[in-house]
Amino acid sequence: MPDDVLVLDALGKDFGATVALDSLTCRVGRGEIVGLLGPNGAGKTTTMKLVLGMLRPTRGSARFLGLDCTRDAHEVKRLLGYSPDEPAFYDFLSGRETIDFVLNVRGVPRDAAWATLTPVVERLELDETLQLAAGGYSHGTKKKLALALALAHEPTLLLLDEPTNGLDPPTAARVRALLRERADAGVAVVVSTHLLDMADQLCDRVLVVDHGRLIAEGTTAAVRAQAGVAAEASLEAAFLALIG
Predict the structure, then answer these.
(1) Helices and strands, number each (H, E), in the chain
(2) Please, what is the Cα angle at 209 between 61 and 72, to 5 degrees?
(3) What residues have CB less than 8 Å from 159, skipping those under 6 apart?
(4) For 91-104, what is each residue's pLDDT tens digit?
(5) How far apart are CA 142 and CA 148, in angstroms?
(6) For residue 74, what pLDDT band results from cuts at 50, 70 and 90?
(7) pLDDT tier at 166 (50, 70, 90 boundaries)?
(8) Where are the domains of the chain?
(9) How many whole angstroms separate alpha carbon 42 and alpha carbon 214?
(10) 131-147 pLDDT, tens per residue?
(11) 4-80+156-243: CATH topology
């Protein structure tokens, strides 16, 4: 296992009598892309919010580079990159102004950040769109802008919620390639997705959660074996067998 970037130790969250996440334990190392898979309500978003410090755990802990994700939430947010499933921006700012605003809030030197971001923007075919007001962006364009923002400060950990949802196939392929390159450079990547083919192509390991519980983990080949399906079966077939 590579050096651990993210460590979840019996992490759990209850909302009243409802167990949203039941004692999840896992580690994510440098250079890994780990998929978080599960049906709606399985606990994927709750897990991400706990890592971001947006929720306080009922039990267990989440640690990022040794920082407690609850107690040190401000520093955690400063160091990691996050892209939500439904990005929201100030409608009256252009994409470029949005990026400059976020860089300013983060205290990231603008020129250095844009040196990193410019090839990303070009690759995502955002360069012309950045001059337009974000209020007119399609969902797919908002997703691309959110990914660019998540990468702007060169984080050690990327938390990405449905990063290719709403993107056309060529753009989705470019995003997958970009994430693989970041992982090869040592970045840890956690991807929450319901797009199982994408997870199969991209992820080094996957965690399958259902009703807040971890029910399978490992490489996609190992998860197929745990599900009892043929090695050549789709990841979707394994997923459906696991969740019953």
Answers:
(1) 9, 10
(2) 20
(3) 48, 51, 52, 80, 81, 82, 83, 190, 192
(4) 999 999 999 999 99
(5) 10
(6) very high
(7) confident
(8) 4-80+156-243, 90-154
(9) 9
(10) 999 999 999 999 999 99
(11) Rossmann fold (3.40.50)
